[in-house]
Every structure is written in C-alpha cells, then in structure tokens.
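Section 3.1 - Work completed
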Amino acid sequence: MSEDCHLPICTHCYAVRVEPQRAKTLRPTCMACGEKLARQVKHTVAPLNKSNYMLFTDPAMLKQLNPKRTT
C-alpha cells in the first residue's frame, strides 16, 4: 500500500492530494490553491514612530499614521 492514500485532499479544490510538507497545516491546500488564497490577502507592514512595526490590512488605518495629511 502506498503512502499517497494517507495524504489529505486539498480543502479548497478537493481535486488533488496535498504534499507531505503541507499536510500538517490546519487547512491543507495544494500549491496552486495556496498561491491563489495567499494572493487574495492584502497587507503591509509599517514602522510606527519610535515604536515597533505593525501589520496593517486596511489602507485607511495606514493613512491615519501621517500627522501631516491634508484630508
């Protein structure tokens, strides 16, 4: 019996078996589906003044950091 039958199926497309390295994740996806899902997420990391770096997912929050903004 081969090891392929013990690998989980992709939770996004349900078409292919997931590689062993990706099978241990919470929601295992194949490489193609994982790439599609990762490209949908938009975020940026910005340094705060005299502080640490912060992750921003909303561009409006990032605009509020500039004290010299006009609008």
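Second construct:
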Amino acid sequence: MQTDVLVSVPITSSGQFTDQTPTALTRCRVKALYIIPSATAGSLVLRDGGSGGAVKATFNTVASATQPTFILFPGEGLVFQTAVYGAVTNLGSAIIFYG
C-alpha cells in the first residue's frame, strides 16, 4: 500500500522517534534510515514500543563522524506496531523515513 513518506526529528540520545510537531510516532513502517556516526564506533538499535520492546534491527557504525550511513529498506519497510524507539550508542544523530 502506498503512503506518503515522512521524516522524523533527529535523535541524538536514546528515545522514541517523533514527527516534526514533535509528537511520538505510533504504528508506522520505517522505510529508510540516516545515521551520522561519531568519532567512536557506535550502534542504533530499533525497538518496537519502547526501551524494553522487541528488537526489530541493530545497525553498527564506523568510527568516523564524516561517513554518514543511509539504509533503504526493501519492500514495505519495517513495521512497528506501537512506537519506534531508538537505542543510541556513540552516534551523532539518527533520523528515520517512515510512512
């Protein structure tokens, strides 16, 4: 099913992704991800529902603040039933493209 693609507010620490209002995102499909790493290798763990929610995906980053990472998910993307939570370790920032 085709939907408009929207962009979240960047997160710089662990927390729930929000829209531009900012209102916490509820059920949605994550279509893509853009991560700006830090000088230290890090990771972004996407969880459904909150800090204790089911892990949907884990992304590790290189130790370089000059090498951003863009990941486009195939098909309809990753569905999150209740919320999109990002557990951040050593990242500059991360945004999601969702619909």
